[in-house]
Design brief:
The protein is mostly helical. About 40% of the residues lie in helices and about 0% in strands. The protein has four helices and no strands. Helix 3 crosses helix 4 (about 70-75). The longest helix has 10 residues, at about 15-20. The radius of gyration is 18 Å and the shape is elongated.
């Protein structure tokens, strides 16, 4: 509530984003406004994804959940939904 110069915390944009995520100010997972999947679907993908099984590869899972193949790949590689583990 005190926006005076000497009361503000100075940091980089990256530090500010990390801080916001750590204290719960930024939405993650299915709380994010642009999330296409919910936690249950992400858990299913992480648990079942296997490149050598045709029914659970990137292409088939992307069709199953109506998302892009890169979304499935990013989930499996922990580039998306990384804080949610099975």
């Amino acid at each position: 509530l005190n926006n005076k110069f000497d009361n503000l915390e100075w940091c980089t944009c990256k530090e500010n984003l990390i801080h916001a995520r750590n204290i719960g100010l930024s939405a993650t997972g299915e709380k994010c406004s642009f999330a296409k999947l919910n936690q249950r679907q992400v858990d299913f993908i992480k648990y079942n994804f296997q490149k050598d099984k045709p029914e659970f590869n990137c292409s088939e899972l992307s069709k199953m959940f109506n998302v892009d193949r890169t979304t499935i790949s990013r989930i499996k590689n922990n580039n998306r939904w990384r804080n949610n583990t099975i």
